[in-house]
């Protein structure tokens, strides 16, 4: 027999409220910044261009994770617990870490049904790099069947391949120095997040085509 006492009502309502705030308060409002920058790119300074890139990145996250929070919260009110789909992705310390935090259901599906069946990282480094590229390109096509999504997936694949190559093949001299290692890791983390923010631009098809024609 159904009983409300087994339903996490407070948690469900909190997730729904969180999702509404992300979508209606943050994403919809901050989109005015990125929309202006992308409509008039020649008239803004480098600083405001970066503001547009970062605001667009925040918009995408709050838009997507907001809808997800609403869905998870609504499911909780019906007694169904859906898995977490975003885990603070912009705190990622590497490109591979980002894909453990962003759209977890999609990245998990791509890993289980594409990357691992292709051979994963079990055969050789070269095959691993190929598998990463194929997986990310097809992951881009999952978002839409156009060139901008292919480029978006390809760029993520390239960064994952380069990161994997450095980890596997290069003996980094600062590994033994904990202070230097922390500093380098922090710099790399900033590089990762800024790179991901830049790559988001390719999700906008009109902007992508406009930049090509330019």
Give structural notes.
- Its main location: membrane.
- Keywords: Acyltransferase, Cell membrane, Membrane, Transferase, Transmembrane, Transmembrane helix.
- It holds the Pfam family MBOAT.
- It is a multi-pass membrane protein.
- With 214 residues, the protein is an all-alpha fold.
- It folds into 2 domains: 9-78; 90-201, no CATH class.
- The chain is 71% helix and 0% strand.
- It has helices at residues 9-39, 46-77, 95-98, 104-115, 125-143, 147-169, 178-200, 205-213.
- The longest helix is centred in the first third of the chain and has 32 residues, at 46-77.
Average pLDDT over all residues: 88
SSE pattern: HHHHHHHH
Instruction: Report the radius of gyration as a whole number of Å.
Output: 20 Å
Number of strands: 0
Distance between the termini: 64 Å
Summed up, the domain count is 2
Helix and strand content put the structural class at mainly alpha
Helix content: over 70%
Strand content: under 5%
Q: Could you name the ranges where pLDDT drops below 50 across 5 or more consecutive residues?
A: none
Largest sheet, strands/sense/barrel: none
Shape: globular
How large is the count of helical segments? 8
Membrane topology: Multi-pass membrane protein
GO biological process, one term: alginic acid biosynthetic process
Subcellular location: Cell membrane
Pfam families: MBOAT
Please describe the topology of this protein:
Blueprint: H1 9-39, H2 46-77, H3 95-98, H4 104-115, H5 125-143, H6 147-169, H7 178-200, H8 205-213
Helix pairs in contact: 1-2, 2-7, 4-5, 5-6
